[in-house]
Write a structure and sequence with these properties.
heterodimer, A: alpha/beta, 7 helices, B: 811 residues, alpha+beta, 4 domains, 13-stranded mixed sheet, eight-stranded mixed sheet, elongated, binds adenosine-5'-triphosphate, binds magnesium ion
Chain lengths: 231, 811
């Protein structure tokens, strides 16, 4: 599904180039559940943004489903977001002017899901995340953890084939985090959804089948997880 | 999606109340201005369109070129030329000769005695002598009477509905009755509908043309190629509008030979040309009978002002939206990752604009409705005509809303929808957003440029009007009460008795009879010769007739010789200084005792030279003038009254008038008011500048206020730090105000030469005018800077006074 060839990303700071990512090569097949780990500033978010086509590599090639992403125009990228990709941001990025309900509804509207189905899907997911009572609140009326839950719910509601999650449980209590991980695993196992997550937690990372360790912008090593974590 | 967009738009509007109010206020004032200007322009452009055959109707006019190359135009055509046109031009399906007339109308008492009612022709109305074909060419609706065989016999007439109601209390019973028109009995044959207010034919009476022909002396009907009166005209109906050029060529040939014979070498060309009815309302070379004329260029100026004001309001919107783009950037980024396409986002932002424009259109329409009475100050639009409920506005208003939405919303929506998502999310848009900075500055400069030009226009027009008011016209215009008299022999026989009775009124200082006031709208010109046996001069002279008291009543001065002695016939002449100069005589004394002859008249002595006075408005140069006394040409009475008890004096004058001339209508006014009326159009133009200048300033300042608010918000942190470092309130106010004042200054610099050019052109229309001076621009600039500074300061002071700890903590 995903093929990264010698991906590089640098920022020009003055005369020198500050490399954030260097020589990233990776192949991620459909149905995989990959975790990315690494110290702060190692380039995890940057890599995820590139995978999510939000950012462009300054060098190297990125192939998605056999197509070169560098050839995508804006329309094709919009299509990707509608059809394939669900994004969970590290900083949640809920739309401040919209209620929880409306935040969840937005991707469905862009996907042109009919209104009846929209309602039932939102009701479903609110139920699953225990947020029914909060549906009419605005993001600034929610706690950080609650905002993160809405962010995850919003990524899942469109039933994407690829979920990119940047520290999806960073602000959650461990039982809640565990629940989210279970949801991810179910989606991955039963619906074949490909998941790439950035995480600081070894435990969460083990839900995946593979861990990429980043350091200073390079893949330091790659760890395969047998059978996934079963706790 | 659309309903969702509108919901979001509404929410966003409520959240950003301040900016929404600024936008809605500015746009609604702009929309109201456009609606009002549309009203004026639409009114003027609709003139004379209500006649069914309007595209086939023409008027034959006359063009003359003097030996000095000066062209003159008139709507008048010599009587014999009219006959020839009537009989020879094959492209005309129908023609009607007409003569303008302003008679006094009496409703006789069938039992004898004093008339039941009497009226003068009202201002804005006209009586026409006309042929039966007139009603074929102009399809006035017929209300009463038999339409066949009308206006064929002498002393028959047709009334307008309004006139019939005035005379007989109702139009139904008018037919068959008799009216005295300037003391001549005439029979009412029919009643036609009143002319539409958008029509240059506000006819109250149509009198048969045979009346003129059968009584040529009374009506001055002269079958003479040599005399052209603007009252004698001919209208025609083309077979087909496409024949206009053909007919024009044919008409040009009429009178070719006769005019050369008649001119006596006075002119280098005289001939006829066609004026289509569609041009009549806009061409002041030929004018109309009783309605106003407005040039197409004035309509263009008005339309441009409307458009500029609307653009200024749109600029505010663009400026505020792009300035605030940063605030929306995160939303754009997130929406894009959720599958929001460029076009969906564009649509969302356009909906926000559409909503603001929608509110503005509602408010603007209300404002236009409230402001409608103001139009009376700057135009001829009657306020009782339908305005907002005209079907054309049901198209115009939505079209306007669409245009305003696109003008205001297109660019900001394009910018916002075009944000790169990752940069938007990282708030790394500073460079993207501030790239609109140059544009914003440009738009602010443009707004103030327009405002500045209008302020300069206001100052200069006010200056010129003030100059005109105080201009020394060479006579005294205050406290002279004047009114018209009939020029018939009965009236003439009562004149000296009338004067004696007026002089007995305690408040009356002197009384004079004359052909017209020293300065008036009418002109009488003739060729003349000075020095017995010499040929005619190569220029014409203006003629005025005044009695022995003319000089004293209107307060003019002699520079040589003496004023005219009492006389009922032309016995001697007085000329003016310009005449002396134009004749090449250095010392006025030298012309005294020389003999002068007007046209083919008798040789008479010049007994005095009068100091120049203005016979027309300041639009005209001083002209050579010859004055004499001639009872037969006295149509105006001027009464100089004392400043005490003015009301009692004027009432006494009316009483004496009504007793002396029972069959005449007393219609008097003060001379200075008549002179002020010369400049009605200029006053309107000045008021237009004033009104729209104020609106332009208002809109520009709203925009500044918005931008200053935004700047203050954006720089809260910087201001906090500066205050902690010891900056004072005034320093911080200047910090913020400086940027904006620079822009205003640039606008002033660009606007000044532009305004100079335009206003200089306007002033060129006056022969007597003020000089444009540098202080006018400085004053206007100072006003603009002051207003801008005050506007910006409101925000800056607020920001400067804010507690620095708060602003720093909140970061
Ligand atoms: N616009 C930029 N200009 C220069 N350097 C940048 C820019 N954006 C990010 N960086 C740098 O890129 C590096 C990687 O950032 P990234 O956000 O990918 O880190 P991360 O691994 O996600 O860290 P964390 O665990 O804290 O989220 C950082 O060192 C950061 O300073
Ligand atoms: Mg990160």
């Amino acid at each position: 599904m995903i093929e990264l060839k010698n991906i590089e990303r640098y920022y020009p700071t003055g005369a020198v180039k500050t490399y954030v990512l260097r020589y990233i090569n990776a192949h991620i097949a459909e149905g995989e559940f990959v975790s990315i780990m690494g110290p702060s500033g190692s380039g995890k978010s940057t890599l995820l943004h590139i995978l999510g086509m939000l950012d462009e590599p300054t060098d190297g090639e990125y192939w998605f489903l056999g197509e070169g992403v560098h050839k995508f125009n804006e329309r094709r990228r919009t299509e990707m977001y509608r059809e394939y990709i669900g994004f969970v941001f590290q900083a949640y990025h809920l739309i401040d002017d919209l209620t929880v309900y409306e935040n969840l509804e937005t991707p469905l509207m862009y996907k042109k899901v009919p209104s009846g189905e929209r309602k039932s899907r939102i009701a479903d997911i609110l139920d699953r995340f225990n947020m029914v009572a909060k549906k009419d609140l605005f993001p600034n009326q929610l706690s950080g953890g609650q905002q993160q839950l809405v962010g995850i719910a919003r990524a899942l509601i469109g039933r994407p084939k690829l979920i990119l999650a940047d520290e999806p449980t960073g602000n959650l209590q461990s039982p809640q985090a565990k629940e989210i991980m279970e949801i991810f695993r179910t989606l991955n196992k039963e619906d074949g959804v490909t998941i790439i997550q950035v995480t600081h937690s070894e435990e969460n990372a083990r839900y995946g089948n593979r861990i990429l360790h980043l350091k200073d912008g390079r893949v330091e090593n790659e760890e395969l997880i047998k059978n996934g974590a079963s706790s | 999606m659309i309903s969702n967009n509108l919901k979001l738009a509404f929410r966003n509007l409520r959240k950003q109340k301040g900016f929404a109010i600024i936008n809605i206020l500015g746009l609604s004032v702009g929309i109201a201005s456009v609606l009002l200007i549309f009203r004026m322009v639409q009114f003027e452009l609709g003139f004379n369109k209500n006649f069914k055959q309007h595209d086939r109707i023409v008027r034959v006019c006359t063009q003359e070129k003097g030996l000095d190359g000066q062209e003159s135009f008139t709507r008048g055509v010599p009587i014999p030329a009219m006959s020839e046109i009537k009989n020879t031009i094959t492209q005309f399906a129908a023609t009607s000769r007409i003569k303008e007339n302003w008679p006094t109308v009496l409703v006789p008492n069938p039992n004898g005695g004093a008339p039941l009612k009497k009226f003068n022709t009202e201002e804005g109305e006209i009586a026409l002598f006309a042929e039966p074909e007139f009603l074929t060419i102009f399809d006035f609706a017929w209300m009463a009477g038999n339409q066949d065989n009308i206006l064929k016999e002498p002393n028959t007439l047709v009334l307008s509905q309004k006139m019939a109601e005035k005379c007989f209390g109702g139009w139904q019973n008018a037919v068959g009755q008799t009216l005295l028109i300037d003391n001549e009995p005439m029979m009412v044959q029919g009643v036609i509908a009143n002319a539409s207010p958008q029509c240059d034919f506000p006819i109250n009476l149509l009198i048969s043309y045979q009346t003129l022909i059968s009584n040529p002396d009374k009506y001055d009907y002269r079958d003479d190629w040599g005399s052209t009166s603007s009252n004698d005209q001919i209208f025609a109906l083309l077979n087909n509008p496409a024949q206009f050029q053909e007919a024009n060529v044919a008409v040009e040939k009429v009178g070719k030979k006769q005019y050369v014979d008649e001119s006596g070498g006075q002119s280098s060309y005289k001939g006829h040309l066609l004026q289509p009815l569609s041009e009549m309302h806009y061409d002041d070379r030929f004018g109309t009978f009783a309605t106003h004329v407005i040039s197409k260029s004035r309509l263009w100026v008005l339309s441009s002002i409307g458009l500029l004001i609307l653009l200024m309001a749109c600029f505010n919107f663009i400026n505020l939206s792009t300035a605030q783009a940063l605030r929306r950037s995160k939303e754009v980024g997130v929406r894009k990752t959720l599958g929001g396409s460029h076009s969906a986002l564009f649509g969302q932002f356009m909906s926000e604009t559409a909503m603001i424009v929608g509110f503005s259109v509602l408010l603007g329409t209300c404002l236009a409705w409230l402001g409608l009475p103001l139009l009376e100050r700057i135009s001829e639009v009657p306020t009782d005509l339908p305005f907002l409920n005209q079907p054309v506005l049901w198209i115009f208003i939505p079209a306007l809303a669409l245009v305003v939405t696109l003008l205001s919303g297109f660019y900001p929506a394009l910018v916002l929808a075009g944000f790169n998502p990752i940069k938007a999310l990282k708030n790394d848009l500073f460079n993207q957003a501030s790239s609109g900075n140059g544009l914003r500055k440009g738009l602010v400069v443009m707004q103030f440029l327009i405002a500045q030009a209008l302020i300069v226009g206001t100052i200069i027009t006010l200056g010129q009007l003030d100059y005109l008011r105080n201009m020394d016209m060479g006579f005294r215009k205050e406290l002279v009460y004047t009114f018209n008299m009939a020029g018939d022999s009965i009236a003439q026989s009562r004149m000296s008795g009338f004067k004696q009775r007026l002089l007995q009124i305690p408040g009356v200082e002197s009384v004079s009879f004359s052909s017209d006031q020293p300065s008036s709208g009418s002109t009488w010109m003739t060729n003349f010769a000075v020095g017995r046996g010499t040929d005619y001069q190569r220029f014409n002279t203006t003629i005025k007739y005044g009695d022995a008291d003319f000089l004293q009543t209107y307060g003019m001065k002699m520079v040589a010789g003496r004023w005219l002695e009492p006389s009922d016939t032309v016995k001697e002449y007085v000329v003016n200084e310009t005449m002396v100069k134009k004749l090449g005589i250095a010392n006025p004394e030298e012309i005294l005792q020389q003999e002068l002859r007007m046209g083919s008249g008798k040789w008479r002595k010049i007994v005095g030279v009068i100091q120049d006075f203005h016979a027309h408005s300041a639009h005209h140069e001083l002209e050579p003038m010859t004055l004499s006394s001639n009872l037969e040409r006295f149509y105006v009475t001027g009464v100089k009254i004392k400043p005490q008890n003015i009301k009692a004096t004027t009432e006494a004058i009316q009483k004496v008038h009504d007793e002396t001339f029972a069959e005449q209508v007393f219609d008097a006014s003060f001379f200075d008011e008549q002179i002020a009326d010369f400049y009605l159009d200029e006053n309107r133009f000045s008021d237009t500048c004033k009104g729209f200048g104020a609106i332009a300033i208002f809109i520009s300042c709203l925009g500044l206020l918005g931008l200053a608010t935004h700047a203050a918000q954006r720089r809260t942190k910087e201001i906090g730090i500066r205050k902690v470092l010891g900056a004072g309130v005034s320093g911080i106010t200047m910090l913020l105000a400086k940027d904006f004042l620079k822009l205003v200054l640039i606008a002033i610099v660009i606007a000044s030469p532009l305004a100079y050019y335009l206003m200089d052109k306007w002033l060129q229309d006056f022969s007597y005018r003020i000089d444009i001076q540098w202080w006018m621009f400085v004053l206007a600039g100072f006003a603009a800077i002051l207003i801008a500074f005050l506007t910006v300061s409101i925000q800056s002071v607020k920001a400067a006074l804010a507690n620095p700890i708060k602003s720093l903590k909140s970061e």
